[in-house]
Amino acid sequence: MAKILVIEDNPANMALATFLLQSVGHAVLSATDAEAGLTLARDQQPDLILMDIQLPGMDGLKATALLKQEDSTRAIPVIALTALAMSGDEERIRAAGCDGYIAKPFAYREFLATIAAQLAREVHAVPNES
Ligand code: MN
Description:
This protein has 130 residues and is α/β, with parallel strands linked by helices. It has helices spanning 11-23, 34-44, 60-69, 89-95, 108-123; strands at residues 3-7, 27-31, 48-52, 78-82, 100-103. It has a single domain, classed as Response regulator (Rossmann fold).
């Protein structure tokens, strides 16, 4: 089980993500805007963050960049949630510091597989010697 923070302003997407994560035993923290999400990330230190890119006010790319600039949050992996499927978006998402992305609408099996793979990567991560 992992503690996963979902930052998503669309109620249907939030409900579905929460349902899917809880169905496999994860604990879910939720925020509907970037500012609330940043506060939860700092205070609760989740194992993983699912970050909607299109949020009211500060967008998910800016919020991810801020998380990756802070000592207290930079180690938390961030998976972008994006409806954007144009070429070039993956580069923008990676450039902001996201560790991966999931396209919306969610395909259930792919959604859970992406999260499981990211969490496994963290568990087995070897400290960088350089
Ligand atoms: Mn959104």
